[in-house]
User: Which sequence fits this backbone?
């Protein structure tokens, strides 16, 4: 039984003194009735471009080595002189020590209690711009900013200060940095090191940041996208003072300041950057904005001079579900549709196992890299909502594993704890855990990959039903939390924590049952018949013997390819 049923009995009773009869009745009625740098993707929706007025940022942590778990730091006060050890986020390597802040904020995943939200994608850039003496990797910058900052602009300035003070230890990086009012893209490149008597006198990084105008959407996916800078508009364009002079010093730019392009200088685009990276953002723009067909030749890597704009105005306002759906994209409906060619196999699988390129007869070909990919460790769609009090507005939708076969959990950013099923340390990429959401979601995904047009479609139906239900329920939870907040903010935070933790456990339980159901229904390539109530149909003689199953079959594309390859041998005569 759903945990939400018990809200009408246990949890609602707990909070009843603070809840009005009207809201109580509506709630009951509703609930009873109802490793290495990572190739990632960020999608951005500004307030004016969203249906509910929230700032929305999505992120997929797409690493073949990263485990799916929810990071959590409680708010804390620190004694003067406390030292913080820095470890490289995606390797665990010890980097050094810095002074701890006197106060740090609560952080759930990549969102803090003030609704500051940060995502990232790695673009690499110039390999010679790498400082082996630096301390601050990109992951540490993210999580230090979340613990120490309240707004996007404050986070940009802190990230700059940390890099210039301790050095920047990663390759080129793009950050999405959002709060309830605005969102920025910040792009960073380490300075080329210059050692003098064992000391790097070029410590730090060059960077540029662009504010995304309200009413627009943007994104980035492992390629630097900031080009020209407006040096006279500090409200919308920020940059390091040496962003141009360092490029001149290194001999990689000699033009006029007005012609300087951060991306073209520090991370020049090539075929791979367009086709494997920017193409994902093109797919996003193409789904929600007009006129994007004119940039198809760029997305395919055929015309690198025809670069897309940093942001576009959508033709509709986007919801959380729109963004979540886009995070599950495999170029469907475009020339790069991964479900259509023979690489999709006999059951339209929109994934290609690595490597991302292959050679035949001396020619190199690519495997497409879509937004949704099998190696995702975890992902999120975050909503920063200014229409609610700061404590209530941050809604961090969190999922583990491949977005195409996983569902999102509504986690409020002021939550005070993390459930066991997504807690750090409950399993790893080297250790199976029966209580880990990551592992049960992977079990379902691996099964879905075998017959994707059948099992995958069924998983997506479950995902859609769950997320639609959660969207409706969070609207009611918001109401209750707001009522509680007016009486006692701490009680409201406890209520939201209860909801988030229990939602995660309910999803875990749902996926355990889904795993069993799919195994029974689709074993050995067959499909069992089902009764109207969903139970499996027996043969009419024994409840233990199924009706003769349905053959799953193969796609027509696959059949034609097999005939072309081996039809002479296989032809029936």
Assistant:
């Amino acid at each position: 039984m759903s945990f939400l049923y018990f809200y009408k009995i246990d949890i609602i009773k707990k909070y009843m003194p603070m809840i009005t009869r009207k809201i109580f009745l509506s709630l009951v009625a509703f609930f009873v009735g109802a490793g290495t740098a990572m190739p990632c993707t960020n999608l951005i929706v500004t307030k004016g471009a969203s249906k509910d007025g929230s700032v929305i940022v999505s992120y997929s942590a797409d690493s073949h080595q990263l485990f799916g778990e929810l990071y959590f730091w409680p708010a804390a006060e620190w004694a003067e002189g406390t030292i913080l050890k820095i470890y490289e986020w995606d390797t665990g390597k010890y980097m050094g020590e810095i002074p701890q802040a006197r106060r740090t904020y609560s952080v759930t995943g990549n969102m803090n209690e003030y609704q500051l939200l940060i995502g990232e994608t790695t673009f690499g850039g110039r390999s010679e711009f790498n400082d082996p003496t630096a301390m601050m990797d990109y992951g540490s910058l993210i999580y230090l900013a979340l613990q120490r900052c309240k707004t996007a602009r404050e986070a940009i300035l802190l990230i700059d200060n940390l890099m210039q003070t301790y050095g920047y230890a990663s390759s080129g990086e793009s950050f999405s940095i959002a709060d309830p009012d605005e969102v920025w893209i910040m792009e960073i490149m380490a300075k080329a090191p210059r050692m003098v008597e064992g000391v790097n006198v070029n410590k730090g990084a060059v960077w540029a940041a662009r504010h995304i105008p309200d009413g627009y959407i943007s994104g980035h996916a492992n390629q630097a996208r900031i080009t020209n800078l407006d040096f006279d508009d500090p409200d919308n364009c920020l940059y390091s003072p040496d962003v141009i002079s360092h490029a001149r010093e290194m001999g990689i730019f000699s033009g006029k300041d007005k012609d300087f392009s951060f991306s073209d200088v520090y991370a020049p685009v090539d075929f791979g950057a367009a086709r494997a990276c920017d193409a994902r953002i093109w797919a996003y723009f193409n789904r929600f904005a007009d006129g994007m067909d004119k940039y198809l030749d760029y997305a395919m890597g055929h015309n690198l001079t025809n670069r897309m704009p940093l942001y576009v105005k959508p033709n509709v306002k986007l919801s959380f579900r729109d963004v979540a759906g886009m995070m599950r994209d495999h170029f469907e409906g475009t020339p790069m549709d991964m479900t259509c060619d023979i690489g999709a196999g006999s059951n339209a699988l929109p994934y290609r196992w690595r490597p991302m390129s292959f050679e035949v007869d001396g020619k190199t070909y690519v495997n497409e890299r879509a937004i949704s990919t099998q190696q995702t460790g975890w992902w999120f769609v975050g909503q920063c909502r200014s229409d609610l009090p700061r404590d209530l507005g941050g809604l961090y939708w969190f999922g583990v594993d491949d977005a195409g076969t996983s569902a999102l959990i509504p986690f409020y950013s002021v939550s005070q704890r993390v459930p066991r099923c997504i807690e750090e340390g409950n399993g790893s990429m080297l250790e199976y855990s029966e209580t880990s959401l990551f592992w049960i979601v992977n079990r379902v995904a691996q099964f879905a990959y075998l017959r994707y047009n059948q099992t995958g479609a069924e998983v997506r139906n479950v995902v859609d039903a769950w997320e639609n239900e959660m969207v409706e329920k969070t609207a009611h939870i918001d109401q209750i939390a707001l009522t509680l907040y007016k009486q006692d903010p701490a009680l409201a935070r406890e209520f939201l924590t209860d909801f988030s933790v229990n939602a995660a456990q309910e999803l875990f339980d749902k996926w355990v049952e889904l795993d069993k159901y799919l195994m029974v229904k689709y074993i050995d390539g067959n499909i069992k018949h089902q009764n109207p109530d969903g139970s499996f149909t027996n043969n009419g003689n024994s409840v233990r013997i199924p009706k003769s199953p349905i053959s799953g079959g193969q796609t027509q594309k696959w059949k034609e390819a097999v005939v072309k390859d081996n039809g002479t041998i296989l032809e029936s005569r």
In short: The radius of gyration is 25 Å.
